[in-house]
Design brief:
3 helices, alpha+beta
């Protein structure tokens, strides 16, 4: 069973993700390239349960619906996959989160995922570049990709998220 502290960390990172992603109005497309799920933006809750099973935890989604969580291994470590639905029960985000007590391990994992994303999509359009919470956003036509990490004395977590085009924003002009 995942402890309450990890859920609080996941919620904090989810809120950071929602702030970075914002809201938009693009048409839904496939969650292309998502390495930890085969679902599409058109996938229903039933589709998710068919793919992942019915043994899930739930909590309120930052998109007004429900978040469904499952244990999920990715990149050689055991984390949590989160399917966040909006108030209309449309899939808004697919995210994988991982918490660790080892800040160096978390940073290496972040760097590995970040390198893969840069290789696939080029440099990100936004980088927080802070010491304790950092992340990048790739503003793509088929939905934003966000990787974020929070490393403090008490909380260490990483989230790697794909946001549906409906809930993504375009890169802000400077």
């Amino acid at each position: 069973m995942i402890n309450k502290k990890f859920y609080r960390i996941c919620l904090a990172v989810s809120l950071l993700t929602a702030v970075l992603a914002g809201c938009g109005s693009k048409a839904d497309t496939l969650a292309e390239g998502c390495p930890f799920s085969d679902l599409t933006w058109e996938s229903t809750i039933s589709d998710m349960e068919e793919s992942e099973g019915t043994d899930h935890e739930t909590y309120d989604s930052v998109y007004g619906g429900t978040t469904y969580t499952y244990p999920k291994e990715y990149a050689g470590v055991s984390g949590t996959i989160k399917y966040m639905y909006d108030a209309d029960e449309k899939l808004a985000s697919i995210a994988w989160a991982y918490g660790s007590d080892d800040a160096d391990e978390l940073r290496r994992l972040y760097d590995d995922i970040h390198s893969d994303l840069v290789a696939a999509h080029g440099d990100s359009g936004y980088n927080t570049d802070k010491e304790t919470n950092y992340g990048d956003v790739w503003y793509l036509e088929n939905g934003n990709i966000i990787i974020s990490a929070m490393i403090t004395d008490s909380q260490k977590a990483l989230q790697y998220a794909y946001i549906s085009p409906t809930h993504s924003t375009a890169k802000e002009e400077k």
